[in-house]
Protein 1
Amino acid sequence: MTPRQRIAHVCADRGIDITGTKGAAAHLRSLATALATQADITVHVARSPGLDTAHLPFRIAQFRSDDELAAALAAQAPTVVYERYSLGATGGLRAARALGVPFVLEVNAPLVAEATAYRPDTVTDDARTAEAHLLAEADLVITVSGPLRDHVLPHRSGKPTVVVPNGCDPALFQHSAVRRAEPTIGFLGHPKPWHGADRLVDILESVRGAGIDARLLIVGGGDGADGVAAAAAERGLSNEVEITGAVDQATASALIGTAWVGLAPYEPNDFFYFCPLKIIEYMAAGIPVVASDLGDIPDLLDTAGVVVDAGNDDAFVDAVVAFINDGNRAQRLGEAGRARALGSFTWSDAAAITLDAIHEVLAGRGAAT
């Protein structure tokens, strides 16, 4: 029988509230929940949780400095330190080395490259050095996509690097929602420019121009959603756009299942390193998907939707119209997506792949656990 691991799960990103509604928070919370069914987990967070955490099946400890983190990890005596990569954060690696246990780095984005593109004032030489050091030194690197794996491999010198796609929580999708009476285009998440948020109203307007009395449902909020609302108002479409604002995962899952089609219109990108949670959750909700043909998206979807040229708005419109006009096809692909998501892309699946990779690292080190 494989020994039960004691995992110190570290998140040094002060922008991530483990009880929050953003995708990063959902990932952190959901993976830790799944890991907790097979391992003893303490999640060490830099940001104080905004909501009550008593219902979560793992311990939470807040740290304010690398010294506090090191002390907390020493007290926990973990068999492995597992850290969600945060820009410039190296405290988890140092603590793992001091304790003589493996260090696992989860990479959800190439943070230096991402920050350089979108927030250049936040990137320092120290952050660049830290990223290269972390990627080179980690005993195991886990990435969420194939393109991201390929990005980190030059730093790894043959060390283990494993792709673990994002997942969904089947408990949130136990029952298929009843779709709305009006043809509804769904978008899940807080809209950002790289999500294609600026295209949402254009697509809605064109679908309506094709003679379909369509609506747009955005399950999310934030500045991007405000921009969508402003664009809709400019075109006289405010009554056709519903924006829920930030909602919890259970509410979001129920709402998105009422849409007729889920939209993921990511902008053209030569390095699409995402594993979109929204696509997996569209599938789990049983709605067909129209998405950009980028990165791992075609492999994620398989037969659960269609991918189109990321730069072709007309192709998005045509695909959405086709699903709305062919309910049988939409239902068939939605059911295929639901079976695929709940059968292969759950957080339990992600946790199992992660633990298998950790066990292999421990075995290679001859760890006695």
Protein 2
Amino acid sequence: MSAQPRRQPAYTLLELLVVIAIIAILIGLLLPAVQKVREAANRVRCSNNLKQIGLALHNYHDDTGHLPPAYTWVDPNQPAPKSVVGPRLFDRPGRAAFFETNWPGWGWAAYLLPYVEQDNLYRQIDFTAPTVGTQAAAVRAVRLGVYTCPSDSGAGIFPVFPLKGTALLDAATNSYAACYGAGGNLAGAPDRGNGLFARNSSVQFKDITDGTSHTLAVGERPARFARAPWVGVIDQGTIRTTAGAPVYQSLMFPPPAMPMARVGNRPLDDPWSEPIDFFGPHPTGMNALFADGSVRWVRASTAVDVFQAVATRDGGEPADLPE
């Protein structure tokens, strides 16, 4: 008698659907955990960037006797290249603050290049020539990891637009902004901040009467919120709310706001935040570098008065951030 073939066991359609459903559930449970781990790693790398910037600031201060300026500026009444001098423009229609000629415009991040292991790039810069010049084109387009938060999804090369018209040039972004202070007219009076940085500033550590551990130096302002070039100020350009940013309104500000941010009357990550505000690319807050070189976490829930207090250098109101 011939042997009967044995039937191989097989999964029914119902069993396959159950297996697929279980796999989908497991993936759904796993993905948030993976994203949480990735964000935690990004936050640590971002903190390390700021620690490196803090060490650079201290080394710069040791060598020069003061902190770098937010950006350098030459009085427009003094001679400047014709290619730089342009018409005065409204920062946006309906407001009385005007653009000034912003020359040469090199910012704090450019001055720190030798202290963040970018000596070769630093040697390519003529700090007496404008950031908008053709001689600076190659430098403007260099992406630097130390100035890029890994959670900043908008970082990279971007077009800098004037108030109206086509793009002026392309530049690489900076995820970090120097602290102008609390309140004040950053756009119209960029040299009058009460923080550590302003136009042509040269603040010394001895000027920080609130205490270096209580004074904000550099905070986050990711390109996904507002894109600004790490080189400093782009004359006649604007800094704008990035399309798709997690805020309710889109605004633009004149060039002085590119290397600086200030603490206004709104909390961190407020949905009405403007391009001149700090903003965190991480869930619930941002990393912040303080004048003593420490990096601490600023929660989005931090009280506005406390946030304002740490933004000033000599307001007489030293405050501690909530743990």
